[in-house]
């Protein structure tokens, strides 16, 4: 089972848990507990964790939302955990009034790029040398509501 029952919303109090999960997903590039705690000072930030070992941190600002980070620990990948986190993020930001969801992904992160493509994200930009290692980031966007101006 990887449904919504295995997900819960967490807060700044759970920064240590978020940092542990992030380390399991990103290794040496993981964010610290302090970094996670600081994120919650920003308006509109929320986080979800999946009991199998995954997390997502996202932000809603007016009608736009952004995934700040999403990851699944190595041992739990390929079982729908990431997809469940993404689905729950879509639901949460739509409920908060967002009509579009953005994120950045490393150009060399083929697995994540496929994962986002399957979820309906399209590339809308590129930030050269965005990451500390000099890697470019692709800016991806998913439209959350049908285009009301499109012909039926
Ligand atoms: C990207 C990531 C979050 C995906 O999580 P996951 O739990 O493994 O993904 P899921 O099992 O939910 O897969 C969802 C879909 O993506 C596809 N997918 C996931 N990983 C894939 C891979 N390595 N190669 C090909 N497709 C992949 C799956 O086939 C699935 O598609 P389907 O539902 O049509 O079969 C996970 O691999 C991860 O944490 N990676 C390291 C951290 C990272 O790169 N985060 C994103 C940074 S922007």
Summarize the structure.
This protein has 4 helices and 7 strands. It is an alpha+beta fold and 152 residues long. It has one domain (4-143): Gcn5-related N-acetyltransferase (GNAT) (Aminopeptidase).
How many helix segments? 4
Task: Report the major sheet.
Answer: 7 strands, mixed
Mean pLDDT: 94
**Order of strands in the sheet with the most strands?**
1-2-3-4-5-7-6
Just name the CATH architecture: 3-Layer(aba) Sandwich
General shape = globular
Bound molecules: coenzyme A
Beta strand %: 25-35%
CATH class (first level) name: Alpha Beta
As an assembly, this protein is single chain
Order of helices and strands: EHHEEEHEHEE
Structural class by sheet pairing and helices: alpha+beta
CATH topology: Aminopeptidase
Helix content: 25-40%
Poorly predicted runs: none
The total beta strand count reads: 7
Return Rg in Å: 15 Å
CATH superfamily: Gcn5-related N-acetyltransferase (GNAT)
Query: How many distinct folded domains?
Result: 1
Q: State the distance separating the first and last CA atoms.
A: 36 Å
């Amino acid at each position: 089972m990887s449904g919504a029952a295995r997900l819960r919303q967490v807060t700044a109090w759970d920064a240590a848990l978020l940092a542990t999960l992030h380390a399991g997903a990103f290794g040496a590039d993981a964010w610290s507990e302090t970094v996670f705690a600081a994120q919650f000072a920003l308006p509109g930030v929320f986080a979800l964790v999946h009991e199998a070992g995954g997390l997502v941190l996202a932000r809603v600002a007016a009608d736009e939302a952004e995934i700040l980070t999403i990851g699944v620990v190595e041992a739990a990948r390929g079982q729908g955990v990431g997809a469940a986190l993404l689905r729950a993020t879509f639901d949460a930001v739509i409920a908060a009034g967002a009509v579009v969801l953005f994120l950045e992904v490393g150009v060399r992160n083929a697995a994540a790029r496929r994962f986002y493509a399957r979820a309906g994200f399209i590339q809308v930009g590129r930030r050269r040398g965005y990451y500390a290692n000099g890697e470019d980031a692709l800016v991806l966007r998913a439209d959350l509501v049908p285009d009301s101006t499109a012909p039926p």
